[in-house]
Specification:
With 384 residues, the protein is of the alpha+beta class. 49% of the residues lie in helices and 16% in strands. The strands form four sheets. A five-stranded antiparallel β-sheet has the order 2-1-11-10-9, sandwiched between helices.
């Protein structure tokens, strides 16, 4: 009995001293573990609720307005739930916008003023990379040359531009201008070549024999296109007051155009006293370009003329025009021994930009043509 009681007492001692404290410590750990699990569960549940609320609010923003009474009720509830915003009067909004615009405009002006101005040189010029070099200029055959950009009135090149020299048949541009300025001039009426139209100065030959009858239109045409001298002489005779009045009108017109160094003795250009300068001839070309008939006739390549007793075929005396080597609106060539070979052109660079080229005093017709080709290449490369 004693042994049994003693054994039980030993067991109680073991339980209370050793096992029970361990169980207590285990219970504390279990409770801590259960609290941690519960806290994690609550955190996860809170995150899901927040995501659901965010998704609901986003869906509400992009949901189309519902129609019907239910939709209207929901919208009314949302409006009621939303905090009231202070309403800004329209006039105040407009003033705010105007003030903002004024501030922005002031800032833009200040920025523009702070930015340094960039100046560009728009003056046209012939460029050395386009062949406009000292060596190429020395190879020009014409003694007097003037190249004028009509768009900006800028001289691009000049050589002896103010030297007075005979102009030969370039005269016929002024002949055409004065003749066309008559108030009533039936172009279909015919003119007859007479002995008064023969060249008694140089005794040049013409295919128009005395007695040939041409319309006024054909007279003008071959005088400009083929430089027909007897046609020009007949035109000067066909003028109120006759040939003296016509020559006086030519000189008066030259003075009115500011061509103070230009003078005419006849309408054909056969006289070496018909003189001008390359610079002043640019003004003559400008004036001639204003006449549709002068433009058309001077650029025509060929024409068959009815002379009353048969027909004659004429071609353009300017090979640059005849073979389409340049694009021009007006042209005229001329030659007498005293002047050499002359040529004036109003070119269209890139088919749109007018440039006037006057050339006097080439030793050969081919030299004058080559000068025209060379200058046209300079222009087409250098100008826009």
């Amino acid at each position: 009995m004693f042994c049994t009681q003693q054994s039980r007492s030993g067991n109680d001692f073991l339980f209370f001293q050793l096992i029970l404290p361990g169980l207590r410590r285990a219970g504390v750990l279990v409770r801590l573990l259960m609290c941690s699990v519960l806290l994690l569960a609550l955190t996860a549940l809170s995150g899901k609720i927040s995501e659901a609320q965010a998704a609901g609010s986003t869906a509400g923003k992009h949901r189309p307005a519902s129609s019907g009474a239910k939709g209207r009720k929901r919208s009314v509830r949302k409006k009621a739930a939303a905090p009231a915003k202070a309403r800004v009067p329209a006039r105040s909004r407009r003033r705010s916008h105007a003030a903002a615009a004024a501030v922005a405009g002031t800032a833009a002006v200040a920025a523009k003023a702070a930015t340094p101005a960039i100046t560009t040189n728009t003056k046209p010029e012939l460029l050395s990379r386009c062949g406009f070099t000292e060596a190429s200029r020395r190879h020009l055959f014409s003694r007097g040359v003037y190249v004028l950009d009509e768009q900006t009135n800028t001289p691009l090149f000049e050589r002896n531009a103010d030297t007075v020299a005979p102009i030969a048949s370039v005269t016929k541009l002024m002949t055409a201008i004065v003749w066309l300025d008559q108030k009533s001039l039936p172009m279909a009426n015919r003119l007859e070549v007479t002995e008064d139209d023969l060249d008694n100065l140089k005794f040049t030959h013409s295919r128009l024999n005395v007695g040939a009858s041409l319309s006024r239109a054909d007279m003008l045409h071959i005088a400009l296109m083929s430089s027909e001298n007897r046609a020009a002489a007949a035109m000067s005779r066909d003028y109120p007051g006759g040939r003296p009045a016509f020559i006086a009108a030519m000189n008066a017109r030259a003075q009115a155009m500011g061509m103070t160094h230009t003078h005419f003795e006849n309408a054909t250009g056969l006289s070496p006293e018909n003189v001008s300068t390359p610079r002043e001839l640019a003004e003559l070309v400008k004036a001639a370009n204003r006449y549709q008939l002068i433009r058309n006739d001077s650029l025509d390549k060929q024409k068959i003329i009815n002379i009353g007793r048969g027909q004659l075929q004429y071609i353009n005396s300017n090979r640059l025009i005849r073979y389409g080597q340049v694009n021009a609106t007006v042209q005229k060539t001329g030659f007498i021994n005293e002047s050499g070979h002359n040529m004036v052109l109003r070119l269209l660079v890139h088919d749109r930009r007018p440039v006037i080229v006057t050339m006097l005093g080439s030793g050969t017709a081919n030299g004058s043509r080559l000068d025209g080709v060379r200058i046209a290449k300079w222009l087409n490369c250098s100008l826009n």
